[in-house]
Amino acid sequence: MTIQPSSTGSAFQQYVVTDIGVGKLIHISGLTSRDEAPFNIEEQAQIIFDKMKRYLEEQGGELSDLVKINAYIVDMRDYDAYNAVRNRVFSALKKLPASATIGGAELVRADNRIEIEGVAFIPNRQ
Questions:
Q1: pTM (2 d.p.)
Q2: Fewer Cβ close by (within 10 Å): the C or N end of the chain?
Q3: pLDDT per position in the chain (126 positions), as tens?
């Protein structure tokens, strides 16, 4: 097993790659829209899913390789709006990830309405 952290220049990793022989296990840190944060949760969620997609593509994967996502929402009244984005992002995929949504989260930055983390498995593609 080989662990390869991403190189983001940050004090922590945006994702960590573990080679488990038959493929890569990717743990994606909790992501926010950070400085791009519009107040709108739909836009924040879309920015986060776009980041996840980019990180998975860096490792030869795609969003359908996600096996689990956890979303932390500041206000559960925003759930329907988040869910609409999540459904749009994942609707065309053949494999849907397991998913949990936790409400009432207090995030590090007050302008962030949502944080999403994920785990993906990218099989060796021969």
A1: 0.89
A2: C
A3: 555 555 555 567 889 999 999 999 999 999 998 777 677 899 999 999 999 999 999 999 999 999 999 999 999 999 999 999 999 999 988 888 999 999 987 888 888 999 999 999 999 976
